[in-house]
Write a structure and sequence with these properties.
- By secondary structure, the protein is α/β, with parallel strands linked by helices.
- Among the domains are: 153 residues, Rossmann fold, CATH 3.40.50.10140; 79 residues, no CATH class.
- It is 45% helix and 6% strand.
- The longest helix has 30 residues.
- It is flat and about 120 Å long.
Length: 374
Amino acid sequence: MKEIFVSYRRRDAADTAGRICDRLRQRFGEEAVFMDVHSIAMGVNFANELAERVAGCKVFLAVIGTYWLEAMDDRLRTRSGLEDDFLRLEVESALQHRVLVIPVLVHGATMPPVERLPTTLRNLAFLNCAHVRPDPDFHADMERLIQSIASHLPSHGFERRAPARSTEGASSIAGLSSAGKLAIAGMGVAVLAGAFVTLGLLLSSKGGTGTNWILGPLPEPPAPLATGGSSGRGGASGQLPRNTPAPPPADDLQGKEQEAGGQHPPAQIIEPVQPLPPPDPKPDPVKPPPPPNPCTECVRAAQADRFELAARKFKQAGGSCKACRAEVRERAPAAAVQRARAGDCRSARQLERLGPGFNLPSSLFRGIIPHCGR
């Protein structure tokens, strides 16, 4: 079932609509996206097929470029009416069937004003739109658009699931085998044993001397050291206080004095530490910046609508800069149409002559014909 319908005008945004359709098929699948060029078989009634597809879809994308509204005005001026404007019929049908309609603005286009739209399309001017800009912002804009579409398509994994019941834990334990239950019981016994051992160690550390009810009788403390006299720092009993180191024997002191010859050893002289020399004040040499990349400069010039500069940089890059060619293909035809509508036919023709240098077909610049001719 085709859940997503992509509507576009071929003279306005066929290339960008193709890229949008490719990303949607990559995310939602080939069978979920409808595009007239690839989805209508030969010999099928075009108008009837479009009406059925629009009525059966869930999300309708109206791709609007800079020439979208002007093409509708041209049909109104050159023909008796708009009955054969299939794009207008697609949008009208989507609005009547209350399908989710998302206007997608490309090539820097803006929403058409309500006063310039036909009566049956004026509700389109009040819908919240999505912007899909060229590279390098194309993929980020498409990701936001895909997330918005996916929230309305629960069949693709974005539905909200009900919270799990509290009985799931009990049912999972009941489904365990006997070996699993024995393993859980063994873990519980080991935890209890560790808790009892820890409690016993805490009680033994606080009880002092005596008997530990887990480890057995504790060893007796060592006997205090005794001295020869009955007076001194140790009191009347001649004992030293605790934590006081015992004095060395007298024989060891006499032997050390005899070895030294009755003289004290000479004091050790500590020489002052010399300070380190100051660091070298010479700064590090500054590395020259890398040479500019002609391909990067070509892309920046095309994004700034400086196509003559882009052509020179494209030639410096050897004609192998695919990103620059894509930018020029995306922007140059729309810029030529705008210059032609403004009366600057000479500048519009200059952009058309730059097309072969970027391997662009002349059919992309047909939008300047109604304003400048050949």
